[in-house]
UniProtKB/TrEMBL annotation:
<feature type="transmembrane region" description="Helical">
    <location>
        <begin position="247"/>
        <end position="267"/>
    </location>
</feature>
<dbReference type="InterPro" id="IPR050256">
    <property type="entry name" value="Glycosyltransferase_2"/>
</dbReference>
<dbReference type="GO" id="GO:0005886">
    <property type="term" value="C:plasma membrane"/>
</dbReference>
<keyword id="KW-0472">Membrane</keyword>
<dbReference type="InterPro" id="IPR001173">
    <property type="entry name" value="Glyco_trans_2-like"/>
</dbReference>
<feature type="transmembrane region" description="Helical">
    <location>
        <begin position="279"/>
        <end position="300"/>
    </location>
</feature>
<keyword id="KW-0812">Transmembrane</keyword>
<keyword id="KW-1133">Transmembrane helix</keyword>
<keyword id="KW-0328">Glycosyltransferase</keyword>
<protein>
    <submittedName>
        <fullName>Glycosyltransferase</fullName>
    </submittedName>
</protein>
<keyword id="KW-0808">Transferase</keyword>
<dbReference type="InterPro" id="IPR029044">
    <property type="entry name" value="Nucleotide-diphossugar_trans"/>
</dbReference>
<feature type="domain" description="Glycosyltransferase 2-like">
    <location>
        <begin position="18"/>
        <end position="181"/>
    </location>
</feature>
<keyword id="KW-1003">Cell membrane</keyword>
<dbReference type="GO" id="GO:0016757">
    <property type="term" value="F:glycosyltransferase activity"/>
</dbReference>
<dbReference type="Pfam" id="PF00535">
    <property type="entry name" value="Glycos_transf_2"/>
</dbReference>
<comment type="similarity">
    <text>Belongs to the glycosyltransferase 2 family. GtrB subfamily.</text>
</comment>
């Protein structure tokens, strides 16, 4: 069977600006989002924009709503993924579909103000390739979330050779050459903000205050945050793999010290230290070995999954007023 390229949009023209929005169960904010985004875009680039709304396998009325929006506004393009692929892959899908010279990524929940678009474009005009929003304040986020986020960025920057700016999300404006590079990166464990900073070119921060969610609930409970953190660390660092030798040396030294102490006591007092200490050492050694094996296993597992080379996402349907786009994609 001949393989069709995923989204042949040759017929579509390339707008000046594309906005990519991943949407997972966002029915409560979609209308507001489209209104505010469209207004912000219109103010900056007139009608020369497109909004790509990616439905990431929502279980509520998000997709029908996106279809309505696409019908109403010719600048809206809806992309329906076959199932929930996760935030980073939904964004990836949007980035592959969009055609703009400038590309903005923004969450659907309006925590990041679309009105910053003007300031971002100004920085691009001044020579930047990436303008990332940097949160100076995060309203409506728990202390726990802020604390863990800051700890995570510290750890990540410690472990990885790549400097990843702290307190940034995926809210950013990028030039076409950055997005083309991003699209050419095939890995499936994607930590997009890290990948963008790896790409290089001129990257500048735009400080802003992060608002609370406009409506709905966060889809990043602790479990998902941990998963994203693991993706980030294993994609950008091999330090954990090397942890084995360091830990091994450390426990080796400790074992040697204990052994010397036991021999010394044997000579001095004629007593052999009982089995408690033996068991303790065995437990410590055993657990360290298991931890290290786990770290190896994690990297190995990722290698295995990457090696399959499966597509990153699967598109069920694309909706827009342009018929050519529709036919091409299905
Ligand atoms: N999202 C997605 N797929 C998912 C989870 C989230 O596309 O599996 C989208 C979601 O609709 C939102 C963005 O990713 O636009 C960020 O999610 P959320 O606001 O829940 O995360 P938080 O801001 O709390 O970290
Ligand atoms: Mg959010």
């Amino acid at each position: 069977m001949k393989m069709e390229p995923i989204l042949p949009f040759a017929e579509r023209t390339c707008p000046r600006l594309s906005v990519v929005v991943p949407c997972f169960n966002e029915e409560a904010v979609l209308l507001m989002l489209e209104a505010r985004l469209a207004a912000a875009c219109r103010e900056q680039v007139g009608e020369d924009y497109e909004i790509v709304l990616v439905n990431d396998g929502s279980t509520d009325r998000t997709w029908p709503l996106i279809c309505v929006l696409a019908e109403r506004n010719p600048r809206v393009l809806g992309v329906d993924l076959s199932r929930n692929h996760g935030h980073q892959l939904a964004v990836t899908a949007g980035l592959q579909v969009c055609r703009g010279d400038l590309i903005m990524m923004i969450d659907a929940d309006l925590q990041d103000p679309p009105e910053l678009l003007g300031a971002m474009i100004a920085k691009i005009d001044a020579g930047a390739d990436v303008v990332y929003g940097q949160r100076v304040a995060r309203h409506g986020e728990s202390r726990f979330k802020r604390g863990t986020a800051s700890l995570f960025y510290k750890l990540l920057n410690r472990l990885s050779e790549q400097d990843i700016p702290v307190d940034t999300g995926d809210f950013r404006l990028m030039t076409r050459r950055v997005v083309d590079q991003l699209n050419a990166m095939p890995e499936r464990y994607r930590f997009i903000r890290g990948m963008v900073s790896w790409i290089g070119f001129e990257q500048v921060a735009l400080p802003y205050e992060r608002a609370p969610r406009a409506a709905g609930e966060t889809h990043y409970p602790l479990r998902r945050m941990v998963r994203l953190a693991l993706d980030a660390i294993t994609s950008f660092s091999t330090v954990p793999l090397r942890m084995a030798s360091h830990l091994g040396m450390l426990t080796g030294l400790a074992g040697f010290a204990m052994l010397s102490w036991a021999i010394w006591r044997w000579f001095e007092e004629g007593t052999i230290i009982g089995w408690t200490s033996t068991i303790a050492v065995m437990l410590i050694m055993g657990s360290i070995q298991l931890i290290i094996l786990g770290v190896f296993g994690d990297y190995l597992g990722r290698l295995y999954i990457e090696s399959k080379g499966r597509p990153l996402f699967i598109v069920r349907e694309v909706r827009s007023q342009s018929r050519a786009a529709q036919r091409g994609a299905i």
